[in-house]
Amino acid sequence: MNTATKRDATQILKEWNEGDKDAPVRLMPLVYDELRRLGAAYLQNERPEHTLGATALVHEAYLRLVDQNAVNLQNSLHFRAVAARAMRQVLVEHARARNAEKRGGKLQKIYLDETKELRQEQDPDLVELDDVLQSFASTYPRESEVVELKFFGGLKESEIAAVLRVSIKTVSRDWTFAKLWLCNELTARGTFA
Hints:
By secondary structure, the chain is mostly helical. It has one domain. Helix content is 69%, strand content 0%. The protein has nine helices and no strands. The chain has helices spanning 3-17, 23-43, 54-66, 76-101, 115-118, 126-139, 141-152, 157-164, 168-188. Helix 2 (23-43) runs antiparallel to helix 3 (54-66) and helix 7 (141-152) packs across helix 9 (168-188). The chain is globular. The model is unreliable at 110-116 and 118-123 (pLDDT under 50).
């Protein structure tokens, strides 16, 4: 997203926060391409028969964002972070629904690019990863935000620092700690071999 578009998106987000009901409609054309790229990145390493496409993922996540009663999005980076969280929820719910259809069969895996940094011998499935992240968030809320923004939002450390209003060093330490904690937890659960 170029600087002028970010400025326009930030202004529209401000208007949305102030109750402008038309703001989400004006925002979508400005952020759609970036959200589509983010959605496509989530699904890039997906199994070939996966039924959820990037367009459907973006649309479902955007509908969830628009449907929120209390919107408080400060800028385009914050919007991207919230959109990433919505996409994560869509993917997890899709995986849970697919697993439920299998009546307790082996979980289908949904692979994400960032798992390369967490990987040992195999990737975790998204449902298991979501469960571990929820446990992590209950004890380490800021570190969990770092994981979500980097892992699901695709934000750089400098962008995460801006969203969370902390230093880049803090983000780097949080990310290192989170990777170790998550790898240990996933290994203990038998997700990693």
